[in-house]
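dude i think i finally got it to work??
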Amino acid sequence: MNQSFQVSGMSCDHCVRVVTQALKQVDPEARVQVDLAQGKVEVDSTQSRDTLTRAIVDEGFRVAP
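look at this
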């Protein structure tokens, strides 16, 4: 299932890697695309939205409702 998140606090390639790794920890098969300029994260995953949001937030980023 493809899900889109508006994430604030990402400012560099390191942030992109951290978010990507956090999402892949909860779903190793997830496909993650990050648009740093737009603060947008697209995730194709079988995990719930809440699980994916928690993975991003736990790394110190904010996810818009």
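The mean pLDDT is 97.
im so relieved honestly
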